[in-house]
Structures are given as C-alpha cells and as structure tokens.
Design goal:
355 residues, 7-stranded antiparallel beta sheet, 17% helix, elongated, alpha+beta
Length: 355
C-alpha cells in the first residue's frame, strides 16, 4: 500500500496549489469547515515508522512497522506526532500532502506524555504550519483532521467534526503516559492511523494532538471519543525539546507515597493525600519547610488525594513558579510518632528544574 513517487513537475504543481489554498477558499466562496479544511489539511502528513530486518532466505529488507499522522507545526521544519507510533522505529519517514516521502533527520521525544517532534532536513515548501490555539472548553465546536488506514489503503487528511465533551480525561492507566495530565475528549472521531492528528478550533488553531490510550500490550483503545493532548502541554514540551533536547520540568524535591485515609483527618488517621517519605536537602520542599511524614493534601487550593492528582496540578506549572502547598502535619519527622496537636499548614514553595 505504498504510494509511488510523484514526478518533479507534479510535486512542484502541488506546492503551488498548496500556497494558493487561502486564495482558493476566498475565490470559491468557501466558509466554515470547508475553508478551514482547505487552509489546514496540507499541514497534515503521514508518519511511517520503518524497520530494517534480515533473514537468510530474503536478505536485508525494510518494512513499515506502524503508520500514523503528523502535523507540520514549525516553519523551521518540525513535525509533531505521537511517541508511541515511532517508539520501535529504526528510522522514520513522513509523507506530505503532495505524496513526497521524506526521511526524518532527528527524533526528539518525551515518552512520559506520548509526544514526539520530528526534525526535517529542510522546511516543507509551500506548506503553512498549524498554529497552536488556546484552552479547550466543554461544549466547544471542534474539527479533527487526521489520516486513516485500512486493508484497502491510506486515506490522507480525513475530517470529522464534533464537540469537546471533557477536558479532564484520564491518563493514569495508559501505557503511553507515565505522567498524569488532563486530556481533551471530543466526539470528532479518528480511525486507525489517526494518532498524531489535529484537533482544531473553529479558527483553525491547533488545540490538541489526537491520540489513543494504549494498554500494556501495545493495543490502542477503541472508543467513540478522541483523546487529545492539550495545546499548553504541546507548547511546553515541543519548545523545550527543540531548544534543550529534553523537557525541563518543575520539581518539589520530595519523594512521596499515596496515603489511603479519610477525606478529612480524624484522630490517628491522617487524610488521604501524598505522604512525604523523603525531603531532598536544600531542595524546594526543604526550603519551604516540608518535613518527612507530612501529608500533602492540596496544591494552590486544589485537593489532591495522591501522587496522580498532585502531579496533574504540578504539570500546569513551570520552574520558577511559586505554589501554595497544603500539608497535614501529624507526625514527628524523626520518630514517625503521632503529634499531640496535628495541624494543617499552608507553605509557599518555589519550583525548580527537574534534573
């Protein structure tokens, strides 16, 4: 199901036509979803995870290990996609809207949030990068543009429409996320091959990178809803990967374990939250006054009942931000014995970069 390479003349013509998309939309009187598709679809590319194999019978060969979607998002030549699509690839290729196959020169990734940034040797000529949008809201009208793939072939840049149904989708049980963050959920469906596609608002701005939750066996979940990584996360991760080669995340300087307890503390039973098992000397938590055996119950007033919810709130911040940490202090940090007068405290903590 591979496509033959277009002739040079055909590719040149496609590039010229791509440059004229906006003019087409006006000249043809396109409005709404049709105009949005004309202006955005050329930035949607195919992503091929390629593998090199060898056998005594057939010798060396190259095969496609996985297929998905990517988004051209930076005029310097960067394509955004999902990490789980390319994690097992020996090398990666993209296919442009004009049918040109291009080998990726560098792969930058953050496997904790299923994001990969693919660097091309040169920008895509005549293709306008997608711009990142703002925060999604429940009930907001959205459009998905993503590739699809089945036994009959590849269907590039398929468009669906829907509304945002949730902005706090869960990543806790997904193998392609080891960090907890809020996902957008919308009923603008994507099919197989659609991971890495675009979730766009009505202005055509990218508000989410479409993905699916993957189980421990590597199988993608089947759902009527599309999950998407929000634009704020994309901007932070992509920006850091391009500038530093890694994501610089804020840190508190503590080790914690989930504490199973009541919602509010009662005698000899601290509340559910994150029990501090270790405080890094000289770290942000140490400077703020957190102690071993403190139970963290809230970040900036948002109730957190364990590490997953705590990390969800920390993901919203950057190094240098000062947050308010609510702790329940009920034990002596040296002995672990219960105090006679346990209390809730609010401590100001300035986050630092995670090494």
């Amino acid at each position: 199901m591979k496509k033959s390479m277009k002739s040079t003349a055909a590719m040149l013509l496609a590039a010229i036509l791509t440059l004229s998309l906006g003019v087409w939309a006006q000249a043809e009187g396109l409005t709404g979803a049709a105009a949005l598709y004309e202006s955005a679809s050329s930035a949607v590319v195919g992503v091929y995870a390629m593998g090199e194999t060898w056998s005594r019978e057939s010798g060396a060969s190259i095969a496609e290990r996985d297929y998905g979607t990517g988004l051209y998002v930076d005029e310097r030549g960067y394509v955004l996609t999902c990490w789980h699509l390319i994690q097992s690839a020996d090398f990666v290729e993209i296919e442009t809207a004009s049918g040109e196959r291009i080998r990726v020169s560098e792969i930058l990734s953050d496997n904790t949030v299923d994001i990969a940034v693919l660097k091309l040797e040169a920008p895509l000529e005549g293709v306008q990068p997608l711009s990142l949008g703002g925060e999604a809201r429940v009930g907001q009208r959205v459009y998905a543009i993503a590739n699809a793939f089945d036994a009959f072939g590849v269907y590039p840049a398929q468009m669906t429409a829907g509304v945002v149904s949730d902005v706090r989708g869960d990543t806790e049980r997904a193998a392609n996320f080891s960090r907890t963050l809020d996902l957008i959920r919308a009923d603008a469906a994507i099919g197989y091959g659609g991971c890495g596609g675009a979730l766009l608002d009505e202005s055509g701005a990218l508000i989410g990178l479409a993905t699916r939750l993957v189980d421990s066996e590597g199988a993608e979940s089947e759902s009527a809803f599309t999950s998407a990584i929000p634009a704020a996360t994309l901007q932070k991760v992509m920006g850091d990967l391009i500038e530093y080669g890694a994501v610089k995340r804020p840190r508190m300087g503590v080790m914690v374990v989930d504490n199973d307890g009541p919602e509010d503390a009662i005698k000899n039973y601290p509340p559910c939250g994150s029990l501090v098992s270790e405080v890094e000397a000289g770290g942000p938590a140490d400077k703020a006054g957190l102690l071993k055996y403190d139970v963290i119950t809230a970040i900036d007033g948002v109730r957190t009942r364990g590490f997953a919810e705590m990390s969800r709130e920390l993901e919203k911040h950057q190094a240098g931000d000062t947050i308010t940490v609510t702790v329940y202090r009920c034990a002596d940090p040296e002995t672990g014995m219960f105090l006679d007068n346990p209390e809730y405290l609010e401590l100001e903590l300035t986050l630092e970069v995670l090494d």
